[in-house]
Design a protein that fits this description.
globular, 86 residues, alpha+beta, four-stranded antiparallel beta sheet
Length: 86
């Protein structure tokens, strides 16, 4: 099973006490008055659940982006194919 890292930016600052409510996501408060929730999200269903929680807080959603090149997996590393062009 793999997950994609997301950055969810919301308007306003969330206190660190909300960390547990957002599971594995870290909370960073930026100087511009926004909060960034970031970390691994298992799948689209989990992402929609997180966005529902943001909506429940009544804070504006500013952006949702993936962090390029960062994927996590609980599966063991698989052997890579070997080819002549490597």
């Amino acid at each position: 099973m793999s997950s994609t890292h997301y950055r969810i930016r919301i308007g306003g600052h969330l206190d660190a006490r909300w960390t547990g409510w957002f599971g594995d996501l870290a909370i960073d408060r930026d100087a511009d008055g926004t909060t960034v929730l970031h970390g691994p999200v298992a799948d689209q269903s989990a992402l929609h659940g997180l966005l529902r929680k943001v909506s429940d807080l009544g804070l504006p959603l500013v952006s949702v982006t993936t962090t390029p090149g960062i994927r996590t997996s609980t599966a063991p590393d698989l052997p890579q194919p070997v080819g002549d062009d490597l």
